[in-house]
Amino acid sequence: MSPDDESFDLAGCLERVRASDQRAARELVEHLHPMVVRIVRARLPRRVAEEDLTQEIFLKMFTRIAQYQGNVPFTHWVSRIAVTTCIDHLRAQKRRPEFRWADLSENEADVLDAVLTSENDVTAGDALAAHELVHKLLDQLKPEDRMVLQLLDLEQKTLAEVKDITGWNITLIKVRAFRARRKLQKLFVDLQKKEHS
C-alpha cells in the first residue's frame, strides 16, 4: 500500500489511532512504511541501522500525533519527521565523528574490557573498534531488545522516559533490559570463542 493509495481512509485511520486503536496504528504504519523507508534509505547515516531509524521515526510520529493539526497533508507531516530525524542523526555524527571510551555505558565497558589491551590509555582506534563491536552485537538482538539497550545504555534515558517512548511498563523494561544484556554478553563470549578456535 503506498501513501498515495486512494482506497486507504487516512482520516478515519487517524481518528481510530487517536482513540488508541492498536489495529489502526498497525494499519497506519503499514500504509506509511514504504514512504518512510524511502526517505531513510536516501539519508541513512553511517552505522545507523535502517530498521532502527524507521522505528524511531514511527515512535516520534505516535508520540506527536496529538500535535498534528491538519494544516498540511499527514504524509507531508510524517515526511518532515522522517527527514528531521535523519538530519539529526547526520548532525550528531558530524559533531562526534569518533566514539570516545567515555561514551560507553558501564555495562558496555565491562563487556568490552577483555577486548582492549590496556585499561588506561585507550586509543581512538580501540574505542572506535569497541563501539563498532557493540553495534555489531546489538544488531544480532531482537529489535525490542536492541531498542531497550539503545535507550537505557547508549542514550542514557531513564526508565520513565523509556516507558513514555515504548508504552511498556517499568517491570517489563527492567526484565527486557536484563535479558538483553545477558544475550549481548553471551554473543560476546561466543564471538571470543570463535576468535580463539
Quick description:
With 197 residues, the protein is mainly alpha-helical. It contains 9 helices and no strands. Residues 96-104 and 114-122 have low confidence and may be disordered.
What does this structure look like?
This protein is mainly alpha-helical. It has helices at residues 10-18, 22-43, 50-64, 74-95, 106-112, 124-138, 143-154, 159-166, 170-196. The radius of gyration is 19 Å and the shape is globular. The protein has 2 domains: 10-95, RNA polymerase sigma factor, region 2, helix turn helix motif (Rna Polymerase Sigma Factor, Chain: A), CATH 1.10.1740.10; 101-196, PhyR, sigma-like (SL) domain (Butyryl-CoA Dehydrogenase, subunit A, domain 3). 20% of the residues are buried. 70% of the residues lie in helices and 0% in strands. The protein has 9 helices and no strands. The longest helix has 27 residues, at 170-196.
Key terms for this structure?
0% strand, 9 helices, 197 residues, mainly alpha
Structural class: mainly alpha
Radius of gyration: 19 Å
Series of H and E elements: HHHHHHHHH
CATH topology tier name of the largest domain? Butyryl-CoA Dehydrogenase, subunit A, domain 3
- Report the end-to-end length measured between terminal Cα atoms: 48 Å
**Number of DSSP strand runs:** 0
Q: Helix tally?
A: 9
In one word, what is the shape? globular
- The CATH superfamily label of the largest domain reads PhyR, sigma-like (SL) domain
Low-confidence stretches: 96-104, 114-122
Q: How would a textbook summarize the main sheet?
A: none
- The CATH architecture of the largest domain: Up-down Bundle
% residues in beta strands = under 5%
Q: Name the helicity range.
A: 55-70%
Round the mean pLDDT to the nearest integer and report it: 75
CATH class membership of the largest domain: Mainly Alpha
Structural domain count: 2
